[in-house]
TrEMBL record, chain A:
One Pfam family from the record: Fer2
Protein family membership: Belongs to the adrenodoxin/putidaredoxin family.
Keywords associated with the record: 2Fe-2S, Iron, Iron-sulfur, Metal-binding
Native species: Rhizobium azibense
Gene3D superfamilies in the cross-refs: 3.10.20.30
Protein name from the UniProt record: 2Fe-2S ferredoxin
Lineage summary: Bacteria, Pseudomonadati, Pseudomonadota, Alphaproteobacteria, Hyphomicrobiales
From TrEMBL, chain B:
Database matches in Gene3D superfamilies: 3.30.390.30, FAD/NAD(P)-binding domain
The UniProt record lists the keyword Flavoprotein: yes
A Pfam match: Pyr_redox_2
GO cellular component: cytoplasm
GO MF annotation terms: oxidoreductase activity, acting on NAD(P)H
Keywords: FAD, Flavoprotein, Oxidoreductase, Plasmid
Listed cofactors: FAD
Ranges of residues in domain FAD/NAD(P)-binding: 10-306
Protein name in the entry: Ferredoxin reductase protein
Length: 106, 413
């Protein structure tokens, strides 16, 4: 089992089993978090899947953001150091235990 | 057991299970709506991401399951009753009832019409032959995918986004593609000339036989299947299949028949209310009365209008004022648009199209209206601020790529 924990905008923390191979965005969406709009369906066009990676399991690493991802994130008023677009992160076993916060809506 | 055709009552009935309809249901619950909700959709599938149809799904690189906007149990936990595979054919605003093709009656307290549109069909002779495809629904796309392995020569009619995206997919899988466009440039309805010329070059460079200024006179077939597309100029182009992307006709018949004001789309006010009490209309089939006088066909518009309508139903009247945005993927080209360019009177090209990374900025009376950004997400995000403030900027500064768009001084209009 590989778990994902999501902090919603009201501060609540919710954990669930993630699906390996799907993106973090798809996992969060499929778990029923409607705060994450993900309007472009994951094709790196909209930045409405913005999250903060609050905790990364030790020894896990995330793919380096592409230039496009970085540039899209630059447009958010809520960008932080740990900002990522969740559609750009494939979920696998090594990420089990990851804690993700949903960023405020721009 | 209760027979299906007895009237059932819902506090809110949403007609159309696409981007707008599903977001309305989700937004109603997010806004605290506690009444009963029905989402009536003509398609049999769970609400799904439509833009992928002409992109990853057609290319076979995305499964349908990954395109669901929400999973099945989402609707259960939100207590949204999904009534799929049902087409609403009539609305009685006095009795507050919608009627389906199957003869079911559903009464509503509030109604949101989010029925999108049907593809505009060819009308020339031969348009009823087999082998002619449209791309609007999963069913349309599946029918096309079924025949693709046996099709070598594909003629696409229409040089809008859907036709161009399909052309890109077909070239990627090695098909011979001819694209026929009646006007003198592709994307003429939505983009400025530099964008049209850029995409024409890209498609031609990848082997698409692009025919501008070409009207289709008729389609000809063998044994009831299309085999040739005949142009008005006389030429006939051989085709194993024909794919048509010439826009949509908004699905508003029952609503107009029920007395809603509108013609090519239903007219709505800033809260997405129609002229009929307690009936809202959103998405591709809604025309904002106080907007640019057009319907906007985009996921952003459908989603944001859904939220506006849902909030209004919950008593929170917040006028629709979202900045429009849109995207299109073709080959390795990502186009992102922000703003609406309607009525622009000048255009600035920022960067060199030959570098395949540039933006086109649309101005009206010196103020920034919109940007089309090719492989330039930074211009897209920074340009949004210029659009939001209708920035007045020196065009030479806009064109100067040694400065970022957020480094240029401007005056707000
Ligand atoms: C191939 C393709 C590619 C696209 N690419 C992009 C893109 O890259 N970016 C972008 O922003 N937009 C894109 N769009 C446009 C975008 O998909 C639409 O703007 C958006 O789906 C509109 O949402 P909607 O809810 O108004 O309509 P839809 O999503 O079309 O939903 C309407 C639903 O209502 C149903 N319906 C219709 N009539 C009835 C009835 N009488 N009773 C019951 N149900 C009914 C329909 O079957 C449909 O399921 C694309 C569209 C297509 C077709
Ligand atoms: S879903 Fe649009 S960028 Fe991630």
């Amino acid at each position: 089992m590989a778990t994902i924990s999501v902090r919603t905008r009201d501060g609540g923390l919710h954990s669930f089993d993630g699906r390996i191979g799907a993106s973090l965005m798809e996992n969060i969406r499929n778990a029923g978090f409607d705060e994450l709009l993900a309007m472009c369906g994951g094709c790196l066009s909209c930045a409405t899947c913005h999250v903060y990676v609050e905790q990364l399991p030790t020894s896990a690493s995330l793919p380096v953001p592409s230039i496009d991802e970085t540039e899209l994130l630059e447009g958010s008023d809520y960008r932080q150091e740990r900002s990522r677009l969740s559609c750009q992160i494939p979920f696998d076993e090594t990420l089990s235990g990851i804690v993700i916060g949903i960023a405020p809506e721009d | 057991m209760r027979p299906d055709n007895l009237t059932r009552s819902f506090d809110c009935v949403i007609v159309g299970g696409g981007h707008g309809g599903s977001q309305t249901a989700a937004a109603l619950r997010q806004s605290g709506f506690s009444g009963s909700i029905a989402l009536i959709g003509a398609e049999p599938d769970l609400p799904y991401d439509r833009p992928s149809l002409s992109k990853d799904y057609l290319a076979g690189t995305k499964t349908f399951e990954r395109m669901h906007l929400r999973p099945q149990d989402f609707w259960g936990t939100r207590e949204v009753e999904l009534l799929l595979g049902r087409h609403v054919s009539a609305v009685d605003p006095t009795a507050r009832i919608v009627v389906t093709d199957g003869g079911e009656y559903f009464s509503y307290g509030q109604m949101v019409w989010a029925a999108g549109g049907d593809p505009r069909k060819l009308s020339c002779s031969g348009s009823d032959l087999a082998g002619i495809f449209y791309i609007r629904s999963k069913a349309d796309c599946d029918a096309l995918i079924d025949v693709l392995p046996n099709a070598r020569r594909i003629v696409i009619i229409g040089g809008g986004y859907v036709g161009l995206e399909a052309a890109a997919v077909f070239r990627k899988i090695g098909k011979e593609v001819t694209l026929v466009e009646a006007l003198d440039r592709v994307l003429a309805r939505v983009a400025g000339e530099p964008i049209s010329r850029f995409y024409e070059n890209e498609h031609r460079a990848r082997g698409v036989d692009l025919r501008l200024n070409s009207n289709v006179a008729s389609l000809e077939g063998v044994n009831g299947r299309v085999s040739r597309v005949v142009l008005e100029a006389g030429e006939a182009i051989a085709a194993d299949i024909v794919v048509v992307g010439i826009g949509i006709i908004p699905s508003v018949g029952p609503l107009i028949a029920a007395g809603a004001k509108g013609a090519n789309g239903v007219d709505v006010d800033e809260f997405c209310r129609t002229s009929v009490p307690d009936i809202y209309c959103i998405g591709d089939c809604a025309r904002l009365e106080n907007g640019p006088g057009i319907r906007i066909e985009s996921v952003q518009n459908a989603t944001d209008q859904a939220t506006t309508a849902a909030k209004a139903i919950c008593g929170e009247f917040k006028a629709y004022d979202a900045t429009p945005w849109f995207w299109s993927n073709q080959y390795d080209l990502k186009m992102q648009t922000v703003g609406l360019n309607y009525g622009f009177d000048s255009v600035v090209t920022r960067g060199d199209p030959a570098s395949r990374r540039f933006s086109v900025i649309y101005l009206k009376n010196g103020a920034v209206l919109a940007l089309d950004c090719i492989n330039s997400p930074r211009d897209y995000v920074q340009g949004r601020k210029l659009v939001d403030s209708a920035a007045r900027i020196d065009p030479a500064a806009l064109a100067d790529t040694s400065r970022q768009l957020n480094e240029i001084d401007f005056v707000t209009s």
